[in-house]
Design brief:
Layout lengths: L5 E5 L3 H12 L3 E6 L10 E4 L1 H9 L3 H7 L1 E3 L1 E6 L4 E6 L7 E5 H10 L6 E3 L3 E7 L2 E6 L4 E4 L1 E4 L6 H7 L5 E12 L10 E6 L3 E7 L5 E8 L10 H9 L7 H6 L6 E8 L11 E3 L14 H18 L3 H30 L4 H13 L1 H12 L6
Parallel strand pairs: 1-2, 1-12, 2-8, 5-14, 12-18
Antiparallel strand pairs: 3-7, 4-7, 5-6, 9-10, 10-11, 13-16, 13-17, 14-15, 15-16
Length: 381
Amino acid sequence: METAKKILAIGGGIGGAATALALHRVGFKPIVYERSETLREVGAGVALWANATRVLQELGVLEDVLRASDPITNYQFFSHRGKQLIDLRVDGFEVPAVAIHRADLQALLWQKIPLEQRILGQEFERFEQVGDKVIAHFYGGLAAEGDGLIGCDGLRSRVRSQLFGEAPPIYRGMTSYRGITNYIPDTYKPGYICEFLGAGKAFGFVTIGKGRMYWYVASKASEGQPDAPIGRKGELQEMFQNWPSPIPELIAETDEANIIKTDLYDRVPLQKWSFSNITLLGDAAHPTLPTMGQGACMAIEDALVVTKCLLEHSDPATAFLQYESLRLIRTKKIVEQSLLIGKVAKIENPVVAALRNTLMKLLSKQFENDYKVLHGYRVSF
């Protein structure tokens, strides 16, 4: 490579940071732009399955991630009455699955990127293509030129909107609550994600390192549904008051300020997401429901694949087309499967929900095989 290509990454979340790190490690000149002034401790927990931790190993950050996280060995499902449905082993790979605070992961990735290649406080406005270059314009007046541009700017990506037009994401009829507490029940088995399935709602929990427990709720709701007068915590305490221990205790031990509420959206998968020397990555390209825990994992995979393609092709436009072709089928399948699981989780009829639980028990071997295939995905330099 005569001159190292300069690649602009718009958005400094997990996907953007992983992309900048991957590009930097192989000699490119990435610059990642993040609209936030500081990297705040936002978000909650995230599961990194073997398909993602394998990439983090390639990026030289896995050991740091292991120190800041807790391993996941089992994914255990229960009915809302506490009856076990499935106990999946998820640790049969050469790299571990882990659960970590999203902010910890983001910080670890950012620390590995040279200071001059990470720029905070710049909100992306638009791009323009001039010859074989692309210029990113930011609201503060900054303009940056690069050989290629990767939109890593999330569900409501401005890069995507400029490429393919404004279109709102699709609300899928569920909202999520996520909480973090330092309370870890005596009954909790280290290494387990425990998920309880009810009629129209579900509750799960797992430890995420540094003595913290992360819990999450998916509940059928109308879009933008306001908090109840008693507040999020009070609403959740009412919603789960009759569910098995330690669910009521986890809610009770969590500060109201540490409970995040987010409506759940995705988009219909695109047939293409690259145009010349501009492409999309992560949620900007293929936003998904969190029901399979693969949103961050797919973004991390994308980061390595797009870097590998840029290594193989000196022309970013050609590289981005190859990247897209390598990623379209896998990401489309995960988005569609996540939506299907979301529809099943949304079932409110108690009889149908009980039938769903029975089917899960009967299909436990199939679930195990599907997880092995999903988490066995490999890409390397």
